[in-house]
Amino acid sequence: MWAYFLRRLGYTLVTLWGLTLITFVLTRVVPGDPARTAAGPQARQEQVEEVRKLYGLDKPLWVQYGVYMRNLLRGDFGKSLWSKQPVVTDIKAYFLPTLELGVFAGVLFFTLGVPLGVLSAVYRNSLLDHGSRLLSLAGVSLPVFILGLLLQLVFYKLLGWFPAGGRFDPFVSPPQHLTGLYILDSLLTGNWKALACSLHHIFLPAVTLAYGSLAVVSRMTRASLLEVFGQDYIKTARAKGLSERAVLLKHALRNAMVPILTITGLQVGSLLGGVLLVEVIFSWPGLGTYAYTAVTVLDVNAIMAITLITGIIYTGVNFLVDFLYTVVDPRIRYQ
Amino acid sequence: MIEGLFGIWRFVRPSRNPLGFLGVVLVAGVAICAVMAPMLAPYSPYKVELAARLHPPSWEHPFGTDELGRDILSRVLVGTRISLQAAVVIIGLSVILGTLLGTMGALTGGWVDDVLMRLTDSFLAFPYLIFAMLVSAVLGPSLPNAMLAISVTWWPWYARLARGQVLSIKGQLYVEAARAVGVGGMRLFFYYLLRNALSPLIVQATLDVGYAILLTSSLSFIGLGAQPPTPEWGRMVADGRQYLLSYWWVPIFPGLAIFVTVLGFNLIGDAIRDFADPRTRR
């Protein structure tokens, strides 16, 4: 168990170091003039020189790398060009709305995707199975930003059921600040009006974000379950007279869980990328919107920090998934 | 290769796999549009006609006109060629780079292989859209740079695939036999190893065309890919987004073009996977 854990931890640390090395090479070695790249396309020559001094870009590469790593370990990602603030300060301000949206979408695709996959596997080749297959093929083929626009058109413009964007109604007072996550805060304080308002606003962006992953997870659940259904121990379980429900939940689903967890971990990557597009479309005041602004002014420092941070989150989630394997499948602990 | 192409027909016959057949029809349609775009397009995709701004779909302009009075149908048709070309270049670059490095790792072994594999781990540890965003921001916003950026994020998948293939082929008896009779160097590499390792790579590359189109249009959507006035689909959606609520056809038609194209490739991919995996074959 500990050997497995330590080995995974070792791989994860090497991967993380690789992440920082790749971004270093990309931002300091690849551009012809890294100072020009960091200062942005509109900067005057003397501003470029200032940036060159400030970041030590006139020093040899290995000195630069040392400074870069030292700053990263201190949590210093440099300054944003357009907000003139340390990138970390900016990211802190924009992080919570993205966390709320991402977690909500994650819960949505997992709690809907797995049961949908189970139903398609149990009622294989039924109308429901074909329907979910079509739904999921559409899900992986429809770009996030088109889905967002279509949902806006239908549910805001035509039906008027949901707001077009934003995180909260400006005319409703937001819940008392405890965690900064509106849904959690309004639940904790019992502020039902604020809860309804936040759910009303988060619904369309979360559905947009979750749809593609829901498609992938439900297909993976179906495929994995069908494979397990063919195993001898399922026959045994049925033969000894267990109810279909017990066979499915205790014997089949648990054994089918490892690939489902793997794909869920990988979907966090698409979620982190998708959140960028979804936030832009629904004017959600989070990291995606921040990144979009950074892209429009080519603020490489800010983009680099966001890339690194999302990379770290993604790697962390997959490390967690590795750990969950041992919970659902104890055999892995002893390998 | 040619037999392989005809072989596809066996498992996308309409009676056997109607969805796979639909995929072939969609992709064939898109390919025809790409080749014939200049002939099919009723207007020039760049012709500005301010008097005809934001006209709804009509017989004259089946997809309507955009904010500069350009014919959206013509722009979507010409955009087909841009998207397909971009996807082919992206996949080509990633396959070449991935195969080269993956094969190198498998053949050299030792620390070279270890370093290469850890490197692919790190590349794959970035969420790909965000990583592609950083690379294209560093290179500067343009379509060729976006294509390069996506290839940079994508090659590790092919490197791993190629490595696995070469590792399993390396030990085969016919490679050993070839070596024993004195085949060596380039001939051994290209004729015996690479040729046999390539077919799963090609299948994977075909499956990935849809995703390449998706990623390119996503980068263009945030402004890092094609620049105006290029009629690239993602860019058209981005530019038309502000007109969505009053003039829906401006962003929606290019968006549907992306959807239909990617759906076509995914339907074919699904059919191939069903066929290749004996557990799901009926």
Characterise this structure.
The complex is a heterodimer of chains A (335) and B (282). By secondary structure, chain A is mainly alpha-helical. Chain A has 2 domains: 56 residues, no CATH class; 242 residues, MetI-like fold, CATH 1.10.3720. Chain A contains 13 helices and no strands. The longest helix of chain A has 38 residues. Chain A is globular and about 80 Å long. The model of chain A has no long low-confidence stretch (mean pLDDT 87). Chain B has a single domain, classed as MetI-like fold (Orthogonal Bundle), CATH 1.10.3720. At the A-B interface, helix 1, helix 6, helix 7, helix 9 and helix 11 of A face helix 4, helix 5, helix 8 and helix 10 of B.
Question: Which SSEs are present, and which pair or pack?
Answer:
The complex is a heterodimer of chains A (335) and B (282).
Chain A: H1 2-29, H2 34-39, H3 45-54, H4 61-73, H5 87-122, H6 127-141, H7 144-158, H8 182-189, H9 192-229, H10 232-239, H11 244-281, H12 287-296, H13 300-328
Helix pairs in contact in A: 1-4, 1-13, 5-6, 5-9, 5-11, 6-9, 7-9, 7-11, 8-9, 9-11, 10-11, 11-12, 11-13, 12-13
Chain B: H1 2-11, H2 18-40, H3 72-108, H4 110-124, H5 128-139, H6 143-170, H7 173-180, H8 185-221, H9 233-240, H10 249-276
Helix pairs in contact in B: 2-3, 2-10, 3-4, 3-6, 3-8, 3-10, 4-6, 5-6, 6-8, 8-9, 8-10, 9-10
